Protein: AraC family transcriptional regulator
Organism: Actinoallomurus spadix
Amino acid sequence: MRAYDPYMDMISEVIGTVRAGNAYARRIAESGAWGARYPSFAGIGFHLVLSGTGWLILRGGESIALGPGDVVLVPYGTEHGLSHAPCALGALPVASMGPEPPRPGPSDFEFLCGSYHLDGGKVHQFLRALPDVIAISPDYERHPQLRSLTALLGDDVSETRPGDDATRSALVDLTLVHALRHWQEQSGDEPWPAITDPGIAAALRTIHDAPDGQWTVQRLSEIAGMSRTTFVRRFTDLVGKPPATYLTGWRLTLGARLLRETSAPLAAIARQVGYSSEFAFANAFRREYGVSPGRFRQNMRAAAPHR
């Protein structure tokens, strides 16, 4: 049996949900008078400053100075900008999302961008509990792992090689994990809702570990060691949605990941995530994502970054 974690490892959970989308990353170099606005999107993203100084531009007119090593985390895709000087967000041109052309000579500001875009999906509610844009200055002496990840991600985006899709997703995952850990450490005010009830945590682990199980609210309440009524109330209070709704969402998130990452038949995916038939899975998926599973798979492959 696993040791009880009062936070139910929410960072791992939210990273698991965003893997239903495509991972993107690229290296950008700017010189002179430069600036770009990043429109809002469904997903999570980051910028990591490699060299030079610049400004993070927020809605409402606020500007935050950035320097080497600083990380900008955008937990749920809020519009923001980067610029050589403070300015109004609306004055910046929309950033180009295509491949970054090589620039001759030295640059004034260089940074890495990484993100997960969720086509039709929903950003995890615990990410939405965070500020819309976060600037972090990590302590690289205490936590040198992020420095190593920065070097690895920078090298990974520098050229096209076999296995790019696998390495890109893994490195974006790890960078997001470390950025979220640094935010937790530096904020000091428990920005993540804590799952402090061991019974509710046990039910969540059951759902995560065996999404294909024939779970009912009654069975989950027994695992939690509570009456059904108490379990539903406690679960909804702590997690933000009723257990049946959460179970469905988790299964469909895993289904979306399998559609994106594998070529498994729809019937096999349906069984893996707890649906008795392909038809039942397809209907539930369409209600959640607005498209059929087959169309979702096609869209994700068409949207995958071509490097």
Notes: The first strand starts at residue 22 and ends at 30.
